[in-house]
Amino acid sequence: MSKRVLEFYIIDILIAIDKIKRYSKDFSNADEFYYDEKSFDATMRELQIIGEATKHLINSNMLDSSFRVVVEFRNIIVHEYFGIDKDEIWQIIRTHLLKFEDEIMRIFKSSDKEVLLDILKENKSDFRGRTLEYITKLEKELKCI
After folding, report:
1. Residue 1 lies in a domain
2. Fewer CB within 10 Å of terminal CB in the chain, N or C?
3. Domain hosting residue 24, numbered range
């Protein structure tokens, strides 16, 4: 298996955040969200992706080590999944995720534009539906930078 281009992790995180926002937008509180198994479980999977990708960005010094808490939270999700607090997840989605998205978007905008465009172009066929729409939006945003 070849080593993955670091910028791909930035895109992974942005896609995961976009999915979480879509999966959770129709709920008004933690209980509603938690009892919709598909939405909650899909969100948990995306939080795992965010944690794993964050680890790679920290290890490569693209992201400050203060974000290690994201990686640690991913480890809790993966290894202690029966102890997950739905209210904590809701708070993360509604507050912390948006702040993290701002930081990742800052890195996205300061990364090598051509590398990011190549990644998006080469992997576009792997995406579908709303994620493909989001990828197209990211491409347009890069072309305006």
Report:
1. no
2. N
3. 6-144
